[in-house]
Design goal:
single chain; alpha+beta; 6-stranded mixed sheet; 4-stranded mixed sheet; flat
Length: 322
């Protein structure tokens, strides 16, 4: 037992009888980029390869008929009509495994208070696996968009209203480009900042205060000249440029191999949970119980790819990182 000096001070009393800190009820969570590209249909499921015998799916397309093949003038009323020239092709989606897990010691489970258990436990991890899947899907979508062959802008110029208008010009100059809805144009947050800064000096906004205010709202969203822009930190950088991109809805798609109890019979003791439309399965680890560990694994069999440029409008949007 320690003899406390007098007069008693907070430091001496707390050292023997107090606590280092008082816990506030509950646990707050970190900020995160929550843009979902799958739920609103920006990126769509196009193939389930479960049971197909292959990890590569082919999305077929065809053309050379109808609007692409006008009737031809004939030299005389006895000439035979020329044959049309059909066209066909496909794009491929290749599946790959993705995964994430979490483990927790027996003692951490026993001692955790309700706030810690709610925020950071195996159950909390399992509840948020769909968000982890969506974050992966967004990152994969941005990787696909960064590889679009045809691109506007460059690493030497910032994003601007002029570049946005050049996207409209490219869309209108592409046959059929305006006949399909355009997904929100995906930009890095800095690109969106550059676009807002450009709007400040755009003459068209000088006499239209309402339109200017709408373009400056802090929402990671922006509407300009009929285009919707969405910012996400998952947009990649390369060669000193942010690699934003624009595409028709469905121009980037994903394929899965839907795991089910029939094709992936994980023992029921592992309490498996199957989400076939995401190619996702979760199950409890049983091999670490001897080390006083509980754990959960989440696996997804999925792939992402862009459609063909003859079927969808696909444009990259490059701008400087400074």
């Amino acid at each position: 037992m320690a003899t406390l000096p007098v007069p008693l001070t907070n430091a001496t009393v707390q050292a023997q009888l107090g606590l280092a800190a008082q816990l506030v009820p509950g646990v707050t969570m970190q900020l995160a980029d929550r843009l979902d590209v799958v739920a609103p249909g920006i990126v769509r499921l196009v193939v389930d390869m479960a049971g197909s015998g292959s990890n590569v799916g082919r999305v077929r397309y065809a053309g050379g008929l109808g609007w692409q093949a006008p009737l031809q003038a004939l030299a005389s009323d006895t000439d035979a009509p020329p044959d049309a020239t059909p066209a066909a092709g496909y794009t491929s989606i290749t599946l790959a495994p993705f995964g994430l897990g979490m483990s927790q010691s027996f003692m951490s489970r026993v001692l955790a208070d309700s706030g810690a258990s709610e925020a950071m436990s195996l159950e909390a991890f399992a509840r948020q696996v769909p968000d982890s899947w969506a974050a992966m899907a967004r990152a994969q979508t941005c990787t696909v968009g960064a590889a679009f062959a045809t691109r506007l802008g460059s690493s030497s110029v910032p994003m601007s209203v002029d570049l946005a208008l050049s996207l409209i010009a490219a869309l209108e100059s592409t046959d059929g480009g305006v006949d399909m809805p355009l997904a929100p144009v995906m930009l890095h947050p800095t690109q969106l900042e550059q676009l807002r800064a450009s709007a400040r000096s755009e003459p068209a906004f000088q006499a239209e205060l309402a339109a200017f205010e709408a373009s400056q709202q802090a929402s990671r969203r922006m509407r300009l000249a009929g285009l919707d822009f969405a910012a996400t930190s998952s947009v990649t950088t390369s060669g000193g440029a942010y690699k934003g991109f624009a595409f028709h809805q469905g121009g980037i798609g994903y394929g899965v191999a839907g795991a089910t109890p029939a094709n992936l019979p994980i023992p029921q003791g592992s309490n498996p949970v199957y989400v076939p439309e995401f190619g996702l399965v979760m199950y409890e680890r049983l091999n670490a119980l001897g080390q006083q560990l509980l754990g959960i694994n989440a696996l997804a069999f999925v792939g992402f790819a862009a459609g063909d440029a003859s079927v969808y409008f696909l444009r990259g949007f490059d701008s400087s990182t400074s």
